[in-house]
Sequence to fold (185 residues):
Amino acid sequence: MNNESLKTILDAHIGQIFASPERINTMAATVAQQISFQNRTVKPLLIGVMKGAAQWTAAVSQRLTIPSDLDFVSVASYEGSQQTTPVMRQEPTLSVQNRHVILLDEIIDTGNTLHFLKHWALDNGATSVQTAIMVDKPMTRTISVDVDYLGITVPNVWVVGYGMDLNGAYRSLPVIAEYVDNPVG
Fold:
């Protein structure tokens, strides 16, 4: 996608673009290659964190070269732009018991959601839990969570696109970009 095409779908609230569609494809391919290599002797259960990680989960899972199962969870951790305590809204339909689980999420900022999900999976009998994260904002971390597979690291800005949103908006953008609250111009 060229810059002129992008300009027609982006609005004044979109600032710096951290990842183009091409870069996102490369990130997903790299993460899938790493997962395939590290899990070549097991059949992992991939669990995407809805809604935000749907695109990332699809992009990574379609590029795996190993057998895997796929499911989703729904966890609420934001109300608008305000962080809240994570709450499980929908558990996966497949059991995590005795499974090597890989949690796929679009972003890790405070770490609360992934910490919550890792403990949930282990408490429900998962053999191991890994994480495959598209975007990391390490400077906002309030709790330590290991990231096993990572797409990119961004600065401490609000990030939208490719599943990430602001009150439901911008989720379908084909890029990963900064949201600018008060654009100039």
The chain has one domain: 21-157. The first helix runs from residue 3 to 9. The chain has a mean pLDDT of 91. Strands lie at 14-19, 45-50, 69-79, 82-90, 100-108, 128-136, 149-153, 159-160, 176-179.
